[in-house]
Each structure stands twice: as C-alpha cells, then as structure tokens.
Amino acid sequence: MSENIVQVTDETFEEQVLNAEGPVLVDFWAAWCGPCKMIAPILDELVTQYEGKIKICKMDVDNNKDTPARYNIRGIPTLMIFKGANLESTKVGALSKSQLVDFIDAAL
User: Fold this and answer.
1) For this structure, is 36 an active site residue?
2) What is the pLDDT of residues 40-79, one digit of tens each?
3) Other residues' Cβ atoms within 10 Å of the Cβ of residue 15
4) Catalytic: which of 5, 6, 20, 33?
5) Does the structure show a pLDDT above 90 at 106?
6) Helices vs strands, H then E, count in the chain
7) Which intervals hold domain Thioredoxin (predicted)?
8) Known catalytic residue: 57?
9) Which of these is catalytic: 5, 20, 36, 104?
C-alpha cells in the first residue's frame, strides 16, 4: 500500500477526516474482502494522481467498530467522500479505475 494513503482508526477519524483541509475519500475495508483487495492498487495509483486535491484514507472495519457503525456501513468496500465534517458521496462495492476517477472528480 502507498505510504501516501492514511490509515485511520476510530480514534483518529475526526482529526484525519472530519477536520481535514479539503475533501477526503475514506475506503472502509477488511483484509479478508476480495473486492477490497481489487481496488487497493487502484487507490495506490490515484493517491499520486490526486495528490494535493483529495486525501485518501483507509479504515479497517474489523479493527474499528464505532465509525463504520456511525455511518451505517453494511457492505465493503464502502467508499465515502467527506468535505469538512459533511458526508458528500458514497459508493458501495468494487469500482473500476474509471468509476473511481468519476466518483472523485464529481466531488472535487
């Protein structure tokens, strides 16, 4: 995983996501999730492509229960884009690179 993708936890979510400058994409994932593994290399590419435009974070739902419950995460991967403290957009399931680009571009 790219060192530019920020690992967030229940404890760091508010600081890293809700209080961040600019938009933040959060990937709610788990190590056992096949579709999550499929989009991981795409996110690694996009974190470089969108550097300075959007922050990309990942949250392991197995190790963090409070935040996924607060946002009603029912399936993974779930991708959410936040601006300020507001949830702007959500996608559930594995997306292709072009779908991820469209999802991010629509939020910028």
Assistant:
1) yes
2) 999 999 999 999 999 999 999 999 999 999 999 999 999 9
3) 10
4) 33
5) yes
6) 4, 5
7) 1-108
8) no
9) 36
